[in-house]
Amino acid sequence: IVKLQSAHCDGDTIGHRCCKAHDCKTPLPSHRRHFCPDHAHLTLKCAVVECPADVAAAHRTCSDPAHRALETAYFSRGKALFQLRSRL
Fold it and tell me: What InterPro entries does the database record attribute to this sequence (predicted)?
């Protein structure tokens, strides 16, 4: 019998995937999930920490323009044009 453990590497740290809720030790149901079953309801809340509003459809933030701007800036970093502009 062999023991096998998986680890997650994001380029900065190596470790086991864990729930995004602060100090939660409950294991995730799968590696694609960000919250454990106890905190699954947080998937429907705005990604901005202090915001209690629900997310808008197809977004990770609520409909507040300031929060939407944060989300847009976060995802623009992965775009090729953003990388090209930073090099020029």
Answer: CxC6 (IPR040898)
